[in-house]
Amino acid sequence: MKKIIIFLALGLLIPLISQAGCCGCDPVYSYAAKGEVTSAVWVRDQACVATGKILTTLQKGWVVQITDKTDGWYKVIAPNGTIGWSGETFFTITDKALTSSTPSTPSTPQTSSTSSTSLAWLKGYILLQVQQRGEAWYVNPTNFKRYYMKDGPIAYEMMRSFGLGITDADLAKIPTNTDTFTGDTALRSRLSGRILLQVQQHGEAWYIYPKTNKRYYLKDGAAAYEIMRSLGLGITDSDLARLASAELVVVPSGSTPSTSQTPSTPSSVADTFVGALFTSTGSQIPGDGTFQKGSVPSGFNYKIVMQHVLDRINYERTKRGKPAIVSDQRMIDTASVWANEMHNQGQITHTRLPVNMIAREWVWQNFKIGFRETWGWLYENIGGGNYNRTQGINESVMASMDDLFDYYMSEEAANGIHYQTIMHDHLTHVGVGFYFDGDNNSGKLYTVFHYGGLNKNIPVIDKVW
């Protein structure tokens, strides 16, 4: 009898774990309820955004049967009989009747004419293709073009590329989605639909929802994707086609650059090329910190600061079974120049002007260092900070780096993008660059971390960052 009990227990546990996917391998519980869809949402074969295959789309207003739940997910039965997993936040528990197997198409935004200008009110909205599979598009308010929001990593790129810097004082004038105060209505209207980055903090991202002009916190790419989709508007294919589209390019690792842009592959990663806007000073050595920008205060010792940062990175990596990494002058150079560019733009931003460009592409264009062929991926974390002589120049910079690094590591529980970057298996080298915005005694910092992998034959990374 004891053997039979053990057999049954295993028979119950194994299917439940496999059904839930393994984004965390959370337990699955039976949960009999009916859920009304609050926004168009995909149904996946696993309870996981990263690896779950999209099976079908549930439209806003449909009522579906819920059979099980796990952390943040419901297992549902779609009206067409498809069974899979959808995010819990997209449902409201209800006693309404289940939607029939042939539901009608939900209503879509109405327009007064067929001219493209009649759709101008859609600036800043997320649009969902109700006649397809609920594909999401962000209408950039600055150029009135739509960008395909494929998944969380793309949502993260949008945060970085379209983000507009804002001070804490101005951000406080915009209510959050749960606040009741009015705030600055003129400012809210002017920033409607924009993605904002807190330049005086750590670059936290917020989305100003055009319907209410309230702000929603976008903790990371996955959160941005789920939140922005939940606020989406349905739109027909014909109306969507009237909006010009543009592509936010994220080049996958291992791709081959076009010959029109790229000279022959360098013989070593230390090579430089004619035509580079900046000539990297470094080779594969720890580096002396040259290339720092701005009013570099007297007494600043980059080696001390970089060793402090490197020690913190490697302590956290090795504690989790990851290999230690080393500092590299070339990445110090590229990070320093980008810190200078952030200062020129007056904001903590990943956006390359005058065109949107990922960090690795920007390094190629400006330094002609072959990240694309030899380095694999270049990753970038950015932030702010302060320095002052009263505390000690080096001590104050290290304290600012501690605050920034603590913020990155605080994302561990949610597996946030900054934490993932620091812990990535492919990392081998890092460089930190500063722009000192002040005088010889005090000021603020623009800070850039550039991470990369110098191992040759790096396989294609299956997730775009």
| Quaternary structure annotation | single chain
Distance between the termini: 52 Å
Count of runs of 4 or more consecutive helical residues: 12
Q: Beta-strand percentage?
A: 15-25%
Class from helix and strand fractions: alpha+beta
Would you count the extended β strands for me?
22
Main sheet attributes: strand count, strand direction, barrel closure:
6 strands, mixed
Radius of gyration: 24 Å
- The proportion of residues forming helix, as a percent range, comes to 25-40%
What is the molecular shape? globular
Parts with pLDDT < 50 across at least 5 consecutive residues: 1-22, 104-117, 250-276, 457-465
Overall mean pLDDT: 75
Furnish the topology, listing elements before pairings:
Elements: H1 2-20, E1 29-37, E2 41-44, E3 54-58, E4 63-70, E5 73-77, E6 83-87, E7 91-93, E8 126-129, E9 136-140, E10 145-148, H2 152-162, E11 164-166, H3 168-171, H4 185-190, E12 195-198, E13 205-209, E14 214-218, H5 221-230, E15 233-235, H6 237-241, E16 245-246, E17 293-294, H7 302-319, E18 326-327, H8 329-345, H9 359-367, H10 371-375, E19 378-383, E20 386-388, H11 393-409, H12 417-422, E21 429-438, E22 442-452
Parallel strand pairs: 8-15, 10-16, 11-12, 17-21, 18-21
Antiparallel strand pairs: 1-4, 1-7, 2-3, 4-5, 5-6, 8-9, 9-10, 12-13, 13-14, 19-22, 20-22, 21-22
Helix pairs in contact: 2-5, 7-11
